[in-house]
Amino acid sequence: MTETIPHIKLSELNSHVAAVIEQHLASLVFWVIADVTNHSFKEKSNYHYFDLVEKADDSNQLVAKIAGKAWGNGSARIVEFERITGQRFTNNINVLVKVRVVYHVVYGLSLDIQDIDSNFTLGVLEQQRQATLARLVTENPSVIRKVGDRYQTRNSGLPLPRVIQRIAVISSKTSAGNEDFRHTLLNNSFGYRFYIDDYHTVVQNEANAQQFLERFIDVFKSGQPYDVVVINRGGGAQTDFLIFDNYKIGLAVARFPIPVITGIGHQKNETIADLMAHTATKTPTKAAEFIISHNRNFEDAIVNFQKAILIKSQQMFSGQYQRLTNLNTSIVNNARTYLNGHKDALVNHRQIVVNKTKTLLYNHQSRLALIATTMVTKPRILTGNKLHDLRHIINNINTFKTGYFKNQRGYLGHYVSVINLMSPDNIMKKGFAVVKQKGKITSNPAVFQPGSDMEIILSGKSIRSTVKSITDYDGHEFNI
Fold first, then answer.
1. Given pLDDT bands bounded at 50, 70 and 90, which one contains residue 206?
2. Dihedrals φ, ψ of 473, to 5°?
3. How many CB atoms lie within 10 A of CB 229?
4. Which domains does the chain have, with CATH numbers?
5. Distance CA 284, CA 279 (A)
6. Which of 69, 112, 185, 479 is the most exposed place for a label (fewest CB within 10 A)?
7. Which residue, 92, 132, 88, is CA-closest to 240?
8. DSSP string of 260-319?
């Protein structure tokens, strides 16, 4: 019969793994940097499902991958992240997330999101943006220069036509922002006429950068004498604007021979395209309003020019005469005021110096007098105090000496009395005797046997005797 191999169920093994992870990792949280992939969102349950991956530095090869999810507070933190950053929580974003390791016996190992750092993702996007800007400046010094916090480009240095009429628009075919742009221009309250040519393309997702560049090339090759090129786009998440941070698009805008106006619709930050363009506005509507305002300024300048010529000469003569009169009066009054002011200031300073000097001398004189008095009286007082202390010590020595000797005499008398009481003569006078055996004093009865010799010493007498018998004695006779 085949012997059964020891085994357990898979559920038991998974439960054991879950218990180990619960014991060692349940109370721990970790901040992890990773890319988001395979993201999905269940709106009814408010659950996010995704994978967190780490790629090699020099390629897209995965070096680590784990499932992740967010619900409850984690989903709330994702909503806050999207609100702060303007960035959807979706695939291909680099995030710094606070996670807890969990293991389910059916669904396996995963990470629960507890929090997400908005500043980290914004920082990553900003680092990429700054690296692109630095590359644009470094590799194209004849086209782009950084002056202070701003960028001067060949495009931004082009003069705008005094009147803008012919406009090339690069935008999405379905862009509501572009419709707002056209409506604002064509229905302006001043009656200005505009000629608008649309060059439609995709204006989101960095992967469409090449298509966007082709529309730029089409504008250039059209041969039309456009006054400006307008780039329009509506609002959206921050990642939707990454196409406008593309290196090639930024360079194309900076080098374009026609002034470029941007109305990309990003309210928080400027894109690289905004920085490279001639004029950056926040929205397509603002771009249209800028063009209308530019033309209005030209019209106002023409209308006001004639008025200015008529009244400018009168204003010039009147103004210059008034200035000379005011200047003369000001010089006289200021000179008088200046002299009077300095005269009063000198008097005040002189009085202050005199008063301060008197006060200073008086204070120092008082301090010197106090020091002199102290130097005279202080040694005398100190010497007197020390003499008083010495007298007090001498009196104490004399007083304690007499008592001490008296006490010591008493102690000596007591010891003499005790010694006298304990002397052998006094003890033997009281009827006690000293017993010797073989010339040695002894108090041990065991050394004596019947027939033994012994010597008994009494007060003034010595008796030699022989032991006849030995009996026990209780000693109660002499008890007091």
1. low
2. -140, 130
3. 26
4. 10-116 (2.40.50.140), 127-298 (3.40.50.2300), 427-474 (no CATH)
5. 12
6. 479
7. 88
8. EEEE---SSS--HHHHHSSEEESSHHHHHHHHHHHHHHHHHHHHHHHHHHHHHHHHHHHH
Place of tokens 């593309």: 246
Residue pair 205/237 in contact by the 8 Å Cβ criterion = no
What residues contact residue 126 under an 8 Å CB cut-off, 6+ apart?
A: none
- Mention every residue, 6+ apart, whose C-beta is less than 8 A from residue 256: 155, 216, 220, 229
Q: Which residue, 183, 198, 189, is CA-closest to 284?
A: 183
User: CA–CA distance from 100 to each of 24, 35, 54, 117 (Å)?
Assistant: 12, 17, 18, 15
Sheet strand arrangement including 279-281: 195-200, 166-171, 228-232, 260-263, 279-281
Q: Which residues lie below 8 Å from residue 43, measured CB to CB, with a gap of 6+?
A: none
Q: Rounding to the nearest 10 degrees, give the CA dihedral for residues 425, 428, 433, 438.
A: 10
Q: Between helices 284-422 and 176-186, what is the axis angle to 10°?
A: 130
